[in-house]
Amino acid sequence: MNSYLNEELKKMDNEMLIEYVDFLEKSWWTLQGQWMLNVNMRYGTDIATEFDSMVFGKNAEVQAWRLKKLLNLNGTISDLIRIMNLSTIWSNVDFEWKDIDKKKARLKITNCVMQKNRIQLGLPELPCKEPALQVNRGVTKVVNSNIKITCIVCPPDIHEETRWCEWLFEL
After folding, report:
1. Model confidence, pTM
2. For the chain, which terminal residue's Cβ has fewer other Cβ atoms within 10 angstroms, N or C?
3. pLDDT tens for each residue of 56-98
4. How would CATH label the architecture of 3-170?
């Protein structure tokens, strides 16, 4: 972190730091959304999805590695949940965790801003099963490579309005 940013952050109270993190998160998602939309418009959905799988999966892996190191985590299901909760990867969706125990947890995306934005623009839902799988593989590779991932539902699958996708993680 550069010294100017460090000094500015020291001037902020906790509430302002949380607002700043929100600003960074929204800025990151604006960049990702614009990148994806423009690749989609120029090269089509198939190419955009292919690139999203590569870029997003690697981004998730790097974020997981940094968070695991920062928080000195091991490789439990609880560690997986903590990393996913803190990562920007899932910060633009509403989600909930279900059926949590030492061996498993289900992640349910209840509201997907990116997909809703596509629909508002007159675009079809992005078939994001493969990119989401790569994201989840990137995270589990870092947290614990013994965690098995099962997709319960994810576009292009037909889904409910309050269940855009759902994933099971089992150790």
Report:
1. 0.90
2. N
3. 999 999 999 999 999 999 999 999 999 999 999 888 899 999 9
4. Alpha-Beta Complex (3.90)
